[in-house]
């Protein structure tokens, strides 16, 4: 089961991950970034808790079709982002995999030097 504390810990456990609050009109929105790019965002005091994650477009559609807790990204590019309800129905492993996939999608687009500095295992 995910709560705000666990979500924050999981997101910040990735190499180079930082938490920022870049939206002055929405200071309650936590963004988790690597290399200056967002890989997860959430309002950690929201009930129910949800997180928006970057996702491969084809996988995003399959996940949405299979899980009612996963919907197109709220206020995001709906082709590349999913918003995931963490109210308890989804398997923790699936949520962890989606967070890691989101991080990997962002790091994959960073310059090679940044990937090396992050000791990213997905680098070629």
From TrEMBL:
InterPro entries: YjbR, YjbR-like_sf, YjbR/MT2646/Rv2570-like. Pfam families: YjbR (PF04237). This is MmcQ-like protein.
